[in-house]
Recover the amino acids of this structure.
């Protein structure tokens, strides 16, 4: 990290504890007051043509203050400045305003919040590089030594989430990590994409990944093949699977979406379709980097089964927010209001990872997919594009890069009757999204071989 | 240069601007003192402070959910010294800003000689002036119970039929103030108010579920302004019953047929078509390769400007930051460059990209004088500016909607985007809509559900056959345009008439 931090850094647990103690005083006029913190001190470096395009240091802290009385809740999110006295003053003032709002709103019959105190603490410290060191490494390795057209993005630094309430709950979750993903471009839209993520930076490991990517570049120089629309046997790398599973997570497992009929897995819910018997999916928070508590202070279960042996488990296979759970009369299971997974895990199959190409034999090797969406959500029909280094494969050998193709296919069929097999070594892919803040989460998935992948344009 | 658009707002709004920007003046005092600690080698610095307040209200199934307020307050410091560094902080005290200057300076030094262009040689904008949204009745002039009452009424008006299984009415109001000043003496003050109303209905019958919304499930009707925006949206007047009625039409409708048809797109789908297959491909930073690791590249190359036929001669596309009420209007971009209306595509010919002063200089360094427009923007104080769409509009033509329909033997009229996907180069696209009606023999015919169409940007716009007149224009937009590393979600505006395209590949859903 570059430079110092003035005042209070809310990536420090003591700072948050001090703030919570000052703001969360017992007040008999409400049932609960709570604070939910998201703080980070991040270096963001973006590169183009192996040169630096932008270098940004971001130090920010946001806290959501909520008051609850009976079936009423009001909340406000504020940026924290770092001067403790001023932050406490602003939060106390905002709390007074929220209290006055409680008199202006009506009861919400589906409001639900914890009634007892809970605690958790996770603090993973790492060893992260200085921003200047990464800038120099990229310049020297990718630009000078390998002479590659590298375009990529490094994000690193501590991210802290915390929760405290007036009932005495205290939760702390801090991860120090980095994520660097980049493309080495051959030309136009043909590139090898690689990522290096972790908690302890290693120059040699970074260089090895960069050099391995560079060794794959000659494959992209081969004559490009354009496929015709039609159905193809295909192998999806883990990075492509992350896109497919992530799209399934967009309404697929939401309790509210299931009950209102807009989930992409309605046919699974109604028993009209099943995944393959080897398809097992769960939300496994304990294995990922996502916090073990929610914005409302609920403790998240270690595991929520979503699909077992291709079918919905007896529990329903839904992610139930507290509000939906109250509305539909089921138990909440530790997800936020969006009811989206944050630590999705697809279980392994039996294809040895090293045998992925031979299991494909002849067909389309999909390194990456892009811009997925539903073309018919209730039918679980998805569309999207192939991207970067996708290859035509014959006899288990990469033959030629292929031009990007649009697909439009039924994901229930693809991983149901269309599933040939999954590899035996799931990969963990951290969530690298940085919309507003660095997100914590991951998808764990093996690669897959499928039959009849439908290309349309 | 002094650029002042203060004459565009009523007097009481001008007073309000003055009051709120005084609060940001403490930022300026602190920052100027903090900047004094930079070494003499620092060639340039700027500070952009942002203060934002938002309120989100929601009534679902006649139950008001917890009101959500948010206050954003922070600043981005930029320093050029050899290289360029940015540092964002929410600590706006003098020591906090001094620490940000120190971090930005350290990044500038660490990147010296290793940047995509020599930032020290880029001329920095030196304009000063003000901008404010035209607001007739600020959202703050209505009390919370009054606004929740409006939402209850709209939500209730969308019910009344057992086949309607979910109803949801929302109101999202944002007020943003931005103060930017530089070591060169440039100083801009801008203030916006944004209003986004929405109603959404889910209907179910005989195994079919359909979602219909007032202007898109991702808020297509969003404009600058206050409570008067709700009237322009007819939000309280008729949107609840209209959305419910159309949802019920959809659950009993047949699936959209597949085939090659003439396609009439209404403005709430045109906005998506413009956004994905004109806006993003014309972003100059994409063309220069910055986004290849994330948002993608572009089929448009630097050598195309000035002679590439992007669409038919009916296609005129403008960058219009001064369009009244439109969501992404401003007077200065976040580099501080004054923004002026310009045609990007004229009579189908590609003329200039969506690129700010830095990207224009980078293109020039590669030997291309492509021009550009002032549209380098950031989503908030914690992100550095990049080339974005702002108000990107298709200019009206001279056809009435009736003429477009009567001139269509077999076609589809599609409304309101619900699905969007396009390739890395912004070429092969597939879009889906909530609602469609067939056109048969020059007349509007049956409603069809799950309408989709696909095409290729490079050829699609050349099939533009008719452009609606000003009576068909709607001023739309979205709060959710994503791009950049680190990622940024930004507001964009798209005003468009209805347009007719010939021989488009149309298809329905699986049900």
């Amino acid at each position: 990290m570059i430079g110092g931090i003035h005042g209070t850094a809310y990536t420090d647990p003591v700072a948050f504890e001090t703030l919570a103690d000052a703001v969360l005083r017992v007040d008999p006029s409400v049932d609960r007051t709570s604070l939910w913190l998201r703080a980070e001190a991040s270096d963001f470096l973006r590169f183009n043509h192996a040169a630096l395009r932008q270098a940004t240091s971001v130090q920010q802290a946001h806290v959501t203050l909520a008051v609850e009385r009976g079936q009423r809740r009001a909340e406000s999110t504020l940026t924290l400045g770092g001067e403790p006295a001023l932050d406490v003053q602003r939060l106390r003032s905002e709390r007074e305003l929220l209290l006055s709002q409680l008199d202006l709103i009506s009861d919400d019959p589906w409001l639900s919040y914890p009634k007892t105190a809970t605690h958790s603490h996770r603090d993973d410290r790492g060893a992260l590089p200085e921003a200047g060191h990464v800038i120099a490494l990229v310049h020297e390795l990718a630009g000078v030594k390998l002479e590659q057209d590298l375009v990529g993005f490094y994000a690193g630094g501590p991210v802290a989430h915390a929760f405290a309430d007036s009932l005495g709950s205290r939760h702390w979750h801090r991860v120090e990590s980095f994520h660097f993903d980049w493309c080495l471009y051959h030309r136009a839209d043909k590139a090898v994409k690689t990522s290096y993520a972790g908690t302890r930076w290693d120059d040699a490991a970074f260089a090895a990944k960069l050099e391995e990517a560079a060794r794959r570049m000659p494959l992209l120089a081969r004559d490009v093949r354009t496929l015709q629309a039609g159905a193809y046997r295909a192998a999806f790398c883990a990075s492509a699977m992350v896109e497919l599973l992530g799209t399934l997570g967009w309404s697929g497992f939401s309790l509210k979406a299931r009950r209102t009929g807009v989930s992409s897995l309605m046919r699974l819910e109604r028993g009209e379709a099943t995944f393959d018997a080897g398809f097992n999916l769960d939300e496994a928070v304990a294995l990922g980097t996502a916090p073990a508590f929610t914005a409302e202070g609920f403790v998240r279960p270690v595991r929520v089964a979503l699909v077992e042996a291709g079918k919905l488990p007896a529990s329903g296979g839904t992610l139930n927010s507290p509000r939906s759970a109250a509305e539909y009369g089921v138990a909440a299971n530790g997800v936020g209001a969006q009811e989206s997974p944050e630590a999705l895990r697809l279980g392994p199959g039996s294809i040895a990872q090293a045998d992925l190409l031979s299991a494909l034999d002849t067909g389309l090797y999909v390194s990456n997919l892009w811009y997925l969406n539903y073309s018919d959500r209730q039918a679980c029909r998805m569309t999207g594009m192939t991207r970067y280094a996708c290859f035509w494969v014959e006899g288990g050998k990469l033959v030629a890069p292929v031009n990007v193709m649009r697909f439009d296919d039924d994901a229930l069929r693809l991983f149901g009757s269309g599933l040939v097999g999954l590899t035996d070594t799931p990969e963990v892919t951290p969530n690298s999204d940085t919309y507003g803040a660095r997100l914590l989460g991951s998808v764990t998935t093996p690669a897959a071989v499928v039959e009849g992948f439908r290309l349309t344009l | 240069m002094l650029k002042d658009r203060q004459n565009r707002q009523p007097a009481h709004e001008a007073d309000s601007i003055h009051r709120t920007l005084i609060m940001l003046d403490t930022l300026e005092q602190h920052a100027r003192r903090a900047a004094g600690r930079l070494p003499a080698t620092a060639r340039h610095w700027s500070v952009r402070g942002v203060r934002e307040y938002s309120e989100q209200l929601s009534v679902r199934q006649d139950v008001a959910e917890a009101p959500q307020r948010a206050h954003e307050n922070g600043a981005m410091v930029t320093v050029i010294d050899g290289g360029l560094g940015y540092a964002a902080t929410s600590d706006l005290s003098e020591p906090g800003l001094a620490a940000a200057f120190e971090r930005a300076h350290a990044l500038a030094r660490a990147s010296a000689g290793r940047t995509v262009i020599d930032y020290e040689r880029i001329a920095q904008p030196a304009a000063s002036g003000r901008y404010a949204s035209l607001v007739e009745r600020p959202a703050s002039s209505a009390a919370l119970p009054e606004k929740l009452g409006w939402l209850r009424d709209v939500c209730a008006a969308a019910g009344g039929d057992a086949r309607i299984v979910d109803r949801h009415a929302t109101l999202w109001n944002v007020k943003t103030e931005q103060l930017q000043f530089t070591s060169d003496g440039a100083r801009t003050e801008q203030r916006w108010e944004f209003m986004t109303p929405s109603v959404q209905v889910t209907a179910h019958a005989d195994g079919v579920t359909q979602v219909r919304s007032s202007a898109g499930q991702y808020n297509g009707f969003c404009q600058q302004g206050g409570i008067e925006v709700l009237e322009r949206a007819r939000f309280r007047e008729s949107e609840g019953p209209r959305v419910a009625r159309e949802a019920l039409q959809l659950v009993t409708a047949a699936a959209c047929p597949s085939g090659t048809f003439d396609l009439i797109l209404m403005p709430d789908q045109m906005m998506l078509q413009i956004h994905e297959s004109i806006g993003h491909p014309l972003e100059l930073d994409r063309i220069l390769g910055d986004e290849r690791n994330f948002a993608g590249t572009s089929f448009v190359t630097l050598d195309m400007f000035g002679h590439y036929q992007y669409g038919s001669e009916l296609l005129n596309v403008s960058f219009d930051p001064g369009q009244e009420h439109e969501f992404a209007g401003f007077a200065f971009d976040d580099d501080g460059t004054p923004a002026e209306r310009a045609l990007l595509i004229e009579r189908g010919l590609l003329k200039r990209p969506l690129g700010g002063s830095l990207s224009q200089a980078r293109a020039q360094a590669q030997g291309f004088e492509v021009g550009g427009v002032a549209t380098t923007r950031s989503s908030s104080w914690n992100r550095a500016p990049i080339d974005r769409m702002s108000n990107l509009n298709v200019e009206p033509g001279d056809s009435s909607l009736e003429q477009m329909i009567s001139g269509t033997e077999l076609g589809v009229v599609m409304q309101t985007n619900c699905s969007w996907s396009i390739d890395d180069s912004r070429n092969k696209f597939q879009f889906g809509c909530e609602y469609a009606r067939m056109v048969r023999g020059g007349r509007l015919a049956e409603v069809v559900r799950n309408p989709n169409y696909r095409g290729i940007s490079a050829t699609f716009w050349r099939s533009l056959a008719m452009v609606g007149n000003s009576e068909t224009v709607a001023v739309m937009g979205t709060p959710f345009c994503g791009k950049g590393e680190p990622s940024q979600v930004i507001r964009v505006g798209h005003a468009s008439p209805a347009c007719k395209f010939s021989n488009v590949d149309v298809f329905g859903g699986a049900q």
Q: What stands out?
A: Residues 230-455 of chain A form one domain. DSSP finds ten helices and 21 strands in chain A. Confidence is low (pLDDT under 50) at residues 1-6 of chain A. The longest helix of chain A spans residues 84-102.
